[in-house]
Amino acid sequence: MRQLYYTIRYLLRGRGGNVIKVLSLTLGLGVGLILFARVAFELSFDTFFDQVEDLYSVHVRYNDDKTGEEDGSRILFAPIPEALRQEFPEIQYATVCRRRYGAVLYHGEDRFKPRLMMADSLFFRTMGIKVLRGDDRLLGIEDQVFLSEKMAERIFGKEDPIGKQLLYGKNYPYTVAGIFRDIPENSHLRFDAVASFINMKTQFGAYAGWGADDSYLGYIRLKSGVFPEQINQKIPALLPKYIDVERERKQGFDMELYIKPVSEIYTQSTEVKRMVVIMSVLAFALLFVAAMNYILNSVSSLPIRARSVGVHKCNGASSEDIFNMFLFETAALFVVALVCMALLLFAFREYVADMAAVPTLGTLLNAQTIWLPAIMILAIFILSALLPARLFSVIPVTQVFRVSTSGKQGWKRSLLFIQFGGIAFVITLLVIVLLQYDRLMNNDLGYDPENIVYAPLNNMDDQKAAKLTAEFKKLPYVTATGLSSMDILSGYGGFPILDNEKNWLFTARQVNYNADYLSLMKIPLLEGQPLKGDGDILVNESFVSKRGWTDGAIGKYIYDDEGNLTGETAEAEPTPYQKTANCKKYEAELDWYGLMSPNGKVITPPRYCDITAIGYDLYLCKTDDIRGEVLNGKGVRIR
Questions:
Q1: Residue 506 carries which DSSP code?
Q2: Which of 97, 394, 465, 622 gets the most CB atoms within 10 Å of its CB?
Q3: For 585-605, how does the pLDDT look when each residue is reduced to its tens digit (9 = 90+)?
Q4: Angle at the Cα of 558 (from 555 to 560), degrees rounded to 5?
């Protein structure tokens, strides 16, 4: 207790120097705490799922024989997960799901925008997500939806939501079948609602078969004790049963399936690992600089405090007593700094959460993430406490009879050099980050996003969309409008590009838009002129380079995957059958088409990859490259 008494006396007497120490520690510990908490948050991704060690994501790797490039993806054909489960008894459960972007649910007049997932009846069991109320197998029934705890509370308040109805887009009824545990922010798969996968076809007309529409996510849960290598070794024999693998290889693509632990989807990505390293280095440097600043402030008082240490020893204090006294002093200052840090974080919690890219500060600072910053702060405390305590405890008792001097300054200069080096490193790193941020914010995107807003026009036909944009143009605060098949930030659908001998070269991404779109987005044309009609295309510089055109692209033609000519100057004259066709095709999401009557009535859902008029009121509706059916104008199958 005597050491504690003398510690308090000194802290009260040396207020000026202690304020500087507390201020330095507060700022260093605060920033270091947030950075290390963010690192722990990144490393804790996907630990939420029950028995996550048995949960795996199904991946597809495309090997391009021509370029040698590999393209890995989690997007795949819908039947793949179930085919794996049926083929390999080592798999306990398998599920397929797909995000539904832009979903809007109505409860009365109240409007909600949940993150909606469409999934089959084994989704919750496969993923290891606890269903709190309801039978998870009800996802196998059309129009059923499960809500998270928070979403159910937002929509229904304290009402019992089970059995209640919600309207999708004000016209399609969903029945609430159950409530599931909230998905945390540190998950690669975040959603607030899960609807029956059957609705993908019945409500949205999506194709969920082999050979087309690879826009689904697949997961499997292995039986206990099964290793992923046992599955990955057997998978190559599966694909030839369902896909024409030889045809794909002749076109230069080799498709390969494999499974990967869900716990590695996010944490093992290159971007995340790079970010973790950068934040860890910066956090450690800041904490180290704060510790060195504390040590140098303590050591700078050595000539003054050496005599008081000698007096303590003359009065019977041992080296251990002096050591403990300085440990108490450092601990007291650290406690004060931690309290000040906590007050600062609480006062600026919204700003800190925004800077850390999390919804609330509690998301970042919780029992799951606090371990790493706690360990680092403890390490910095030990460094800051032991060095001064050891230095002062070995001062001889004869120091009381000596004149105070600051001799032997070489080691002090070494400490100062280390501190200056740490500060220079931190400043350099921050300057690099600021330059990267400036480049990110001011880099030429190829378009101007300023004052651009967009809205999805789901399943709206061309006439209604044109009428809607015309109404928008009348508004005094709207300067321009445009229509496109996808927003500019989304992943576009792809189609293969063939050379003049009709050999597969590469896959290009495409978007369709109206005449006003380029001027709206301020996309400049480097050569040529805007599109004039059917058969015209615009390509970017990357396309020209991949196609191997060294003398410009204007006037060139390209072949699609069926060998049809298209080009910027090509005259796409309709066939006689197309001229006399009564019906027309409409396009849904991801390049899927359906048959529509002349007055806009939907005849078939959008389950075909292409529709072509082949006779008078006869239409070839293709489900993939080699299969299809012939329908008449009433949607009746002829052959």
A1: E
A2: 97
A3: 776 655 677 888 776 677 887
A4: 150
